[in-house]
Amino acid sequence: MPELLEIEAYRRLVRGALGRAIAGIDAPDAWYLKGGLGAGDLGAVLGGRRFVADRRVGKLLLLDVDGGTTLGLRFGMTGVLEVDGAVAIERLEYSSARRDPAWDRFVVRFVDGGELRMRDPRRLGGVELDPDEGDLGIDALDLTLAGLRGRLVGSRAPLKARLMDQRRIAGLGNLLTDEILWRAGLDPARPAGSLTPAELRRLHRHLDRTLAELGARGGSHTGDLQESRSRDGVCPRDGTPLTRRTIGGRTTYSCPVHQR
Ligand SMILES: [Zn+2]
Question: How many other CB atoms are there within 10 angstroms of residue 146's CB atom?
Answer without folding.
Answer: 10
